[in-house]
């Protein structure tokens, strides 16, 4: 019974922090575009990216 006096306030603090973090993420736009990242992983770019050394004309 004595442990409940310690554990309940800690649980309330954790829930409060989790709710504040969730609302911060929603307000800062973390959940605005959920589909782009999933599509980006599935579809490759049409053109391969150039390495920085290829732009100078001096290969490895």
TrEMBL record:
Keywords: Membrane, Transmembrane, Transmembrane helix. The chain crosses the membrane at residues 6-26. It comes from the Bacteria. PANTHER family: FIXS PROTEIN. This is Cytochrome oxidase maturation protein, cbb3-type. It comes from Microbulbifer marinus.
